[in-house]
Structure formats: C-alpha cells, structure tokens
Write a structure and sequence with these properties.
Layout (H helix, E strand, L loop, with lengths): L3 E6 L9 E10 L5 E9 L2 E8 L10 E5 L11 E11 L3 H7 L4 H16 L3 H10 L3 H7 L15 H19 L6 H10 L4 H4 E4 L4 E4 L1 H22 L5 H12 L12 H17 L6 E6 L4 E10 L5 E3 L1
Length: about 325
C-alpha cells in the first residue's frame, strides 16, 4: 500500500497527529478476533499502532492503541485514539517531511526532487513519478543513504544529492541538443536512475555505516531498480509502452551495458550526466582529485591529476 497521512484525535479531540500510516496488516488474536497492526511515522520517529474493536462481536475497527511514544503530556503508557475522529491529510511533500522525521536539508532536497517532477509536461508520466516519490518505503532510505559506499557522494544524503546533480545536468543537455529529445523522459530517467540503491544498501548499526546487502552483491542496483519500477507500473498503469521501454533502456545503459542493447538518446544523456556528476563530486576545493584505494581501503589523493586555475585537467 502507498500509505496516507492522518491526524488522529482522542475522545476529547486531542490531536496526536499527523501520522504517516505506512502500512496496515490484518491479524487475528488466539481467540480468532480480528485486529490491525499499523506502521506509523511522525516527527518523533517510527512506532506501531494496534486497532481493535470496541466489542468482540463488532467487526468495525473503532480505535487505535499506540505505545512506545512520548507525547507532549509525557505519557508513555498506551494511548487510545478514535479512528472515527481520524482526519485524512493531503499527501504533500510538506506533510511527508513532518511525518518521516526528515531534517531541514532532507526536506529541501525532497522539494527540489518534486520541483523537477513539476517540469514534466506529460500528465501520466508526472503522476507516475509523484507516486514513486511519495512512497514511504522509498523516501525513508532515498533521502538518507549514500550514492556509493567507496566512491562519489559516499556520505549521508549522498543519493538524493547525486540524483539532483544528475537531473540538473540531464535537463541542461536535453534542452541544448539539436536533435529531437523527450525531455520528460530524461528528467524521469535521471530521477530514478539510481533508485535501486534503496534496496541494496543497508545500515550496519554495529559498525555505524552502510554496507552492501546480499541482494546487492548478487543482483546489483540496476536489476533492483528495474524490479521496483515494474512494481509501480503494475500498481499504477499510467505509462504507455514506449515510455516504459525508454525508462528501462535508461536503466540498462547505466555503467557497463550489454552490447546487444541499443542506446536511446535519452539513455545516453542520463548516462553522461551520471558520469559527469560522479566525477565532479570527487574534485576537492583545492583542485586535488581523490580516488578510492582498494588496498588501503580509504580515499587518497591522485597525485597524477590536478586542476589549474582555469579548471583544466593537467597531467603532472
């Protein structure tokens, strides 16, 4: 499920929201009575709510019990909230930012992402992209994880910052080419070109860093990105076949591509923008260029390359 945002009020109309209701699971008690488990987010973090019936014979869920949250009244005990008093709130970036506990920078980056989506002229493609970038499972990791673990944009927020850099370059290239180009697909492709990384990086809290998941080592982020987009295509049938194929071609032509796969001009633009953004990120303010040394397992300065005052690369 995509999720929704709601303000929940108790019987005295005290507001405990807004909460981002990310998922709802239906279960049964040992006695066979139904209840629901809700995955909830708000500005304080993630919590779990349980919705029950007011009587065992009543099949309508009437209230939610939320535990583990310290509300403004300091109460850490179970709190009952009337579902009947729930007020569904617009699924906007502002409200998502409040409920997913994003910091100021992350909210700013997310608004920039949606600013690029607003540039898309095709209504169906725009709706498709908005569905992707209001989906909580993607946003929680997309706004925080690095773009790479050993190369460019390797710190927190690296992926969303790199995505913005790639999209800016792709828009510039697409609008300045002399051939006929689908600018909408260039924007969409740039925004989702690395979205598979939300499925292949995981946080190792013991080591306090991000690591590759088993899925990453076996399948890679291109495959995981394709599967993720296919999931959205099956759930939201907005795109025509040509748009679907072109977006898939952009994924397939990232980094190394199969020789039997043709390259559309849109895929070439996104690939070029991706490479440019990644290389620009490893240039230090001093003009020195860093690279990851696999033997030392750390970044080192490449003494063979420096930038002069005119920003030309000079071989030393």
């Amino acid at each position: 499920m995509k999720g929704f945002i709601a303000n929940y009020l108790d019987k005295e109309n005290k507001n405990y929201g807004p909460f981002f209701v990310a998922n709802i699971f239906t279960h049964e008690t040992e006695e066979g009575f139904p209840y629901q488990k809700l995955i909830l987010y708000n500005g304080r973090g993630k919590t779990v709510g349980y919705s029950f019936n007011e009587s065992q014979n009543d099949k309508i869920y009437k209230y939610i019990k939320i535990s583990g949250m310290k509300f403004k009244n300091g109460n850490l005990e179970m709190i009952n909230i009337n579902i009947k008093n729930a007020e569904i709130v617009e699924l906007s970036i502002e409200n998502i930012g409040k409920t997913l506990n994003l910091n100021t920078a992350e909210k700013k980056y997310l608004k920039e992402i949606h600013g690029f989506i607003d540039l898309i002229q095709d209504a169906e493609l725009k709706t498709f992209m908005r569905n992707i970038f209001t989906y909580w499972r993607i946003l929680v990791s997309f706004t925080r994880i690095p773009a790479s673990l050993r190369n460019h944009d390797s710190k927190r927020n690296g992926l969303i910052k790199h995505t913005l850099d790639v999209t800016k370059i792709a828009v510039f290239l697409a609008r300045n080419f002399s051939v006929d180009i689908d600018v909408d697909l260039c924007i969409a492709g740039a925004l989702i070109h690395d979205i598979g990384k939300t499925r292949v990086y995981r946080k190792d809290y013991r080591k306090s860093k991000y690591v590759y998941s088993k899925k990453a080592n076996l399948l890679g982020h291109k495959y995981c990105g394709m599967k993720l987009i296919d999931k959205f295509l099956n759930e939201y049938c907005y795109l025509c076949e040509n748009q679907h194929i072109t977006l898939a071609n952009i994924f397939l032509n990232q980094h190394s591509a199969d020789r039997d796969v043709a390259v559309t001009i849109e895929a070439y633009i996104v690939k070029t923008a991706d490479e440019m953004a990644a290389r620009m990120n490893v240039i230090l303010p001093s003009g020195e260029i860093r690279e990851y040394n696999k033997n030392l397992k750390k970044f080192v300065i490449d003494t063979n390359l420096l930038l002069n005052s005119e920003n030309d690369v000079i071989n030393q």
